[in-house]
């Protein structure tokens, strides 16, 4: 049996957790901000969401990664566009408030 390893950043893991419904958008943004601040990485969550979308939908590194994501979404009944819209709206709101 062949196993492929897919590396994930902490942002990827938070996004996957959110998509699977194990955290809402508020917890996801709060956790990203807490990790980002404590690690001094100075990452942009919007940028990492864009990279995640490119990786699994618009410009995947491998066809297998796109297929893996499609299977994950189908198995869990995830409406990714809707979830990303809610997450993006919250990020814009938090940015306007100076939170992130």
What's the structural blueprint in terms of helices and strands?
Elements: H1 10-19, H2 25-39, H3 45-58, H4 63-76, H5 80-96
Number of strands: 0
- Radius of gyration, in Å, reads 14 Å
Largest sheet: none
Question: Element order, helices and strands?
Answer: HHHHH
Total number of helical segments? Answer: 5
Q: What are the segments in which pLDDT stays under 50 over at least 5 consecutive residues? A: none
- Taken from the alpha-carbon principal axes, the silhouette is globular
- Termini gap: 44 Å
Structural class: mainly alpha
- Mean of pLDDT: 93
Portion of residues in beta strands equals under 5%
Helix content: over 70%
Question: How would you briefly describe this protein structure?
Answer:
With 100 residues, the protein is mainly α. The chain has five helices and no strands.
